[in-house]
Design brief:
By secondary structure, this protein is mostly helical. The chain contains 12 helices and 4 strands, in the order H-E-E-H-H-H-H-E-H-H-H-E-H-H-H-H. The N and C termini lie far apart (50 Å).
Length: 297
């Protein structure tokens, strides 16, 4: 369900398909376009009309280059126009493959031990362990069992189907990875001796992002808010769930989505990249200084 403000604002829908909601703008004319109408360009995506105008204005040299290289780039362009959530599918494939490898006796334990997140691996001066910072990110690709993997992948598939077409592939991947990273940082800061696995931090980031984006375009987000609250509360009542990762992922996902909603115009792209970089830098500073202070206190 949507609010009257949402349905009355045509900027929330594709200008060529009025029944299709989208969060992506043509980088030329700034009109809203759905995944079917999006064509990848060097500076983002453009609508069919702007693409046609660009083709007409090409110089003879550009036309010759297009004929020469068109066969090699055609697959990529067709994929962009299709608007399929390919990043979601890629994340599902990679995470599921690693999860299935974890089920193999002997090999699975080694994979889990190499990729799980454990804060002591970040502080070789405090613990007799090697420095392995990649665990802050790789933990979201390993899980604690088939049920854990299946539930997270189902959530990723459901959220990705809605969120990736609205945000675009690059922004969707960024919010997934940064949210997962934020979940690991929150675990390190609040429970530095806890080991964690799973994509839950990234999933909570996507859920919070969908909440922020939905609220921005005027959709009724009450149901999403209830789902987010219920799922977060489960972490306090069910054992072996790192609620800290859920909290960190949700906070960072909401923050990144808020940045997206305020920097979606082409001339704001540099600000968007700068603000996202600042979020990552702040997370790095937090994980570098806060857990050692807690462990030494």
């Amino acid at each position: 369900m949507t609010t009257p403000e949402f349905t009355s604002n045509r900027d929330n829908f594709c200008y060529r398909h009025p029944d299709r909601q989208s969060f992506v703008l043509c980088q030329r004319c700034m009109r809203t376009i759905c995944p079917e109408c999006q064509t990848q360009a060097p500076v983002g995506v453009i609508c069919p009309e702007c693409m046609e105008a660009e083709r007409k204005n090409r110089t003879p040299a550009q036309k010759k280059a297009a004929r020469r290289w068109g066969a090699r780039s055609g697959g990529t362009m067709a994929m962009a126009r299709g608007g399929k959530p390919v990043v979601t599918y890629a994340l599902l494939a990679v995470t599921s493959f690693i999860g299935l490898l974890q089920l193999i006796p002997g090999i699975g334990d080694q994979i889990t031990s190499q990729l799980l997140f454990a804060a002591p691996y970040l502080y070789p001066n405090l613990f007799a362990l090697p420095f392995e910072p990649w665990r802050l990110v790789t933990a979201m690709f390993v899980h604690g069992g088939f049920i854990h993997l299946a539930l997270n992948m189902l959530a990723l598939w459901m959220l990705g189907q809605s969120l990736e077409p609205m945000l675009g592939r690059g922004r969707f991947l960024a919010i997934y990875l940064i949210s997962g990273f934020g979940g690991s940082v929150m675990v390190a800061c609040l429970a530095p001796l806890t080991s964690t696995v799973g994509a839950s931090g990234a999933i909570f980031g996507l859920l919070a992002a969908l909440l922020i984006v939905g609220r921005h375009i005027g959709a009724n987000v009450t149901g999403l808010l209830v789902i987010l609250g219920i799922n977060f509360a489960f972490g306090f009542f069910i054992g072996n769930i790192a609620w800290q990762a859920h909290l960190g992922g949700a906070i960072i996902g909401a923050l990144v989505a808020f940045i997206y909603t305020r920097t979606k115009r082409p001339n704001q792209r540099k600000w968007q990249i700068l603000l996202l970089s600042a979020v990552v830098v702040v997370l790095i500073v937090l994980v570098a200084f806060v857990p050692p202070l807690i462990l030494l206190s």
